[in-house]
Amino acid sequence: MHVKKKYIIPVVTLCVLIALLIVINSMKNHVPSETQMEHNYEHKSEIKSYVDTQLTYEIIKAPNNTYGYNIKTNGRILIHQPSIPALPGIEGFKTEEAAISVAELVIYKIRQSNFPPSVSVSELDSLGVLLD
Hints:
alpha+beta, 4 helices, elongated
């Protein structure tokens, strides 16, 4: 079957327009609804509430005779971290002191409204916990 050249440009143009409409329609679906925006606002308010909340840590046993930590607020576990954050694997810190250093850093970050707090390899290195 032979397609005439005069039909190629309109067909290609039509295909491009359809593709654009699909992309535009899918972008509309990614705009947060009013309900989602309200939920995000409530979540931010909850995070800010940790600034003045009593936060404590508890050192826990982890696999292979290592240590992890729990961060608690009002007796409720907020973060359960049995392994070293930012590193692969399931083992925890080699010493309780290393676990305490990172738990204190995490509490500091939560108080600075960093939630969920993340810990980088460079922060672990600066705390000296990778040497243990």
